[in-house]
Amino acid sequence: VLASQIVATMWLAGAISFFVTCAFWMLFYIAQEIDQPFGEDPNDLQVRRMQEDFNRSLIHLLDPLTQTVPAFSLGETISEALLRNSSYLNVKDFTFEDHCA
User: Fold this and answer.
1) What is the pLDDT of residues 45-97, one digit of tens each?
2) Using CA atoms, how far apart are residues 30 and 58, in angstroms rounded to an integer?
């Protein structure tokens, strides 16, 4: 009702109605595509590839090397530096070659 008072010409009213109708149809088709993301369309999610990648990751986790925790130890010079400067370790003076043999 308000639009009939604002729009002065019949052609402008027709154009506005056409664009509003097209906008609603576009929203409808976008909602349909969002509602069905799985399928064979080019823009659908590639579920098969995602599942194959997930299966490869699970098989990789079954490897005995991935089930052990790696050993880690600090060298004596690094431990001593940390104990000496327990409140502050000057990173600028620290070089890898000096502290790791």
Assistant:
1) 888 889 999 999 999 988 888 888 777 665 556 666 666 665 554 555 555 55
2) 35
